[in-house]
Write the structure tokens for this entry.
Amino acid sequence: MMDVALVDLKKDFPILARPIHGHRLVYLDSAATTQKPQVVIDAEVDFYSQHNANVLRSVHTLAEEATTLFQNARQTVARFVGASRPEEIVFTRGTTESLNLVARGFADKFLKPGDEIVVSPMEHHSNLIPWQQAARRTGANLRFIELDPVGQITLEAARAVIGDKTRIVALSHVSNVLGTVNPIPEIAEMAHAAGAIVVVDGAQSVPHQPINVAQLGADFLAFSGHKMCGPTGIGVLWGRYPLLEESDPVMYGGEMISFVDRETATWADVPEKFEGGTPNIAGAVGLAAAVRYLDDVGMERIHRHTTNLGEQAFDRLHAMSGVSVYGPQRPHSGVLAFNVDQVHPHDVAQVFDSLGVAIRAGHHCAQPLMQWLGVGSTARASFYLYNSDQDIDVLVHAIEETKRYFRR
């Protein structure tokens, strides 16, 4: 059942008190971005109003305070994902930049013609296009683990693709469309046995469940702050330290250098060599505040709560006539893609908005998956810690209203 104590947290998110078109705001678009608790908003305001300065440069009081806050944020995020040392945390703009950094900084350096990069049809464009481009630049080949009929990756399917030529396996932990939870630890073991590294898109898993990178089996993990109650424009690449040391920087200038003369340059140590230019300091401070907030709530509780909501919603929509629901019934995350018969998803979303319900409609940056499903787009509801059973009732009511509206 729903965690009643978590529902009480809604008061921590000021935007959720705002009415939309005369209705209570029911926010079901957390897979796109989550709302922000007041403590995160306050952390950013406090930084800009009390400590604003650049980091790793000056020695005046504000600069030392800003640098301390920035480095403390790195330590906070490192603890959150079980990193072995803070230096394994590289701050980026988000999951997309993190995955591109691996593709450019690691894959371009080590891949050669005939090597294989393994992905799946369910990947977000951010975890597909960088590998398409890396394959094009290096002469490597892209291979796909095909999905079973409900949109899951089976170990048998993975075993059929991962082999002696595999050098990189890049997969989402949780699908941003189907809600599928992929067996990353088992696939990682398979990939490592073949001599490959494992890159995990954690954008939809890190915000929702406890993550320990060692237990996950990843070599690189990418995630975004704005999907876990943090600010936009801040994200993380975690990587095993030896692999980060071997990787090349992709942004040059600023504080990523060790020594420069007219003809040559050497790089700073990890992670600074990947953080050229002024970083998003306030974003890192806000992300650390979000991590502390999530830790206080409890990641196990959040995982149980959002999984329960996603599975309840799947069951209820699956039982409705004229509604198609996609993805596996169990296990299912808090992401739910659906279509209403003979109604375009954008029209569904507009009716929902008139009722104060925020969902997403479109291809969800996963066009190959839409092709696999045989649809152009879907509607998508996604749940987070501030949602409740009552929001599922509103979701079902909005679908019924949509069907009535278009019957008229």
